[in-house]
Structure formats: structure tokens, C-alpha cells
């Protein structure tokens, strides 16, 4: 294997890793935004301006990769690959050279067009102008997005190495290397179109990705697809103002804990109900649902039994879902088949209880 071929392969692999960086490159900070951070500014302070600069940088960087190969191979003396190609396919080297020279010129001209006239023709700005009302210019929309991005009340989902989905109080944003898809939550509709499930070996874990179509009722706004891990769906659902419609053919994959929560809720429905007026306003676990279960010793055990269930004197402070997750977290992960017959301790007073001791509250519906 010649050194010229090795150089070509290494250059190709490094280029791919810079275009679509793997986890190792991201962890080491070897990404285009990190390398050229001095040109981009601060994303937290100027979100829209940062991504306008970044898109121009990506465009130019992609275009110089072919000519970069030619320049490096010339100065490092790795010319045999090109020479061999010229012998077998005479026109290929000249075509590649022409392409390598013309591509950066076209990209620079395109980037210049994007940034002239106060970036009025940039793809991101063109998307922003679709949300201008009452003679408001795109900079006002950009300022609003910048302010919401600086807020801690947002979620950022890294859906791939180069694509990020950001949901703020009023905006749903999909950031890609060269552009940005934007939808205002007030006129957005989200539909889960497809679910892709992958079985990963050797640990037999399963990963599911959801393809969600985001549409806007506003005229001229193009729909787009966001692809997220199913584990991030709840975070997205909680942050989006409108409900997310799920097509009937989409089947969600459930983790072991999620399956246990369903079984837990079905099992405790058979237990006696507990009547009380002392209920916390919010569940101590999720801080969203209303508490709907109370621990009360009802099981019968033999005097010789070890780790006996004990009375819990805490008032109802947990919803059934959070109690189920707490119960599952205290069990042995490799003995799932014993979870229902196992015991746990109260999250507050550490009183021991089993499934028979979890009583639904009378007059409180599940999920409230």
C-alpha cells in the first residue's frame, strides 16, 4: 500500500469527521465551530447572528476541502495517486482540479451574497421574515429569539452531530449547518409520523427514534422533520404549547421501567382505596401531577418473615407514576421478574412497603 493512498484515505476520513463529527471529535473539541470560534461570536448572546456566521463558515469550509487535498498533496509530495489516475482516466485529474478551484469561488460568492444588504438574502433571514407582522423587520424577530434562547426555560435536543432542535417559550427551531427551520408555537402543529426501532447488541438494548413533522399554519413557512430519541419525547411534549398528534401506526417502544409503571398502576387498582383530605398540591417527584396514592400497611405476613412491611404515617405526597419509578429504582436491575413481589421503602420516612400497601386515593383520578 503506497503512502500516497494512505494520505488520501486519512484526508478523506478527517474530512468526514469534520463534516459529521463523531463523539470523540466533539468531546475533544475538534469541530468546525470550536476551531473557528473566534470568527463566530457568542451563541448565547447573539443566537441568530452566530448561526448566520456559522452557516457561511460551513459553506466555505465544505467547498475548500477538494482544493485543500490538492494543495496538501502537492506540498507533502503525495502526487502519485493523481498521476496514476491521469494514466488510467486522462480527463479525471483536470476535471477534479477545475471542480476544486471553481467550488470555493462559487461558495465565496454565495456567502458574500448572503451577507450583503444586512444579510437580507441569507436563508436564515428569509425564514425570519416570514414571521414579520405589522411592518416589523426580521431583526425584531431575531431579537425575540435571542432573548428566549438566553432563558433557562428552554430545551436543546442534540438530534445528531450537526443538527440541534431548540424549543423556547414561543419558538421551535431546528438548527442545521447551512440553515435554520423556525416555527412559532402559536401556529405550529406536530405529528409523529414514524418510529424507527433498533436493537443494539451485545447488551440487547433497544433504541427508538421518532420522526416528527412540524408544520406551521402561517403561509409560506415550509414544514420540516425533526428526528429525536424516544426518550426525549416527554421533554419535548412538556415544552411544546400544543399537543403532539401521534399517528395510529406509530408504536412507542417502552423501557423496562415504563412497562413496570403500567403494570404497577394496574396492580394497585385492585387495592382498597384510602380516604383523606390531607393531600399535597403537587407530587414531590414530578412536581406536576396531583398525589393519588397513600402507603398503608394492609399485607399479612408471618411472624417469622424478614424485612416486614411497616406502617407509613406520611400524608399522600406522591403520584402513582413517581411511586412506581421509585419502587423500580430500589430493585435489582437483573431480576425484573421479582419486582412485583419485592419490597421498597417510603421515599420520605423509609417505612417498608410492598405492592399490597399502595392504596389509591378515593376521589382522585390517575394522572391528575
UniProtKB/TrEMBL annotation:
- One annotated GO biological process: protein ubiquitination
User: Pfam families recorded for this chain?
Assistant: Tmpp129
Question: Where does the secretion signal sit in this chain?
Answer: none
Query: GO molecular-function annotation terms?
Result: ubiquitin protein ligase activity
Task: Specify the domain of life of the species encoding this protein.
Answer: Eukaryota
Give the UniProt subcellular location, in the record's own words.
Membrane
- GO cellular component terms attached to this protein's record: endoplasmic reticulum; membrane
Q: Enumerate the transmembrane spans.
A: 6-36, 57-78, 90-112
Question: What does the sequence similarity comment in the record state about its family?
Answer: Belongs to the TMEM129 family.
Q: What is this protein called?
A: E3 ubiquitin-protein ligase TM129
Q: Which organism is it from?
A: Diabrotica virgifera virgifera
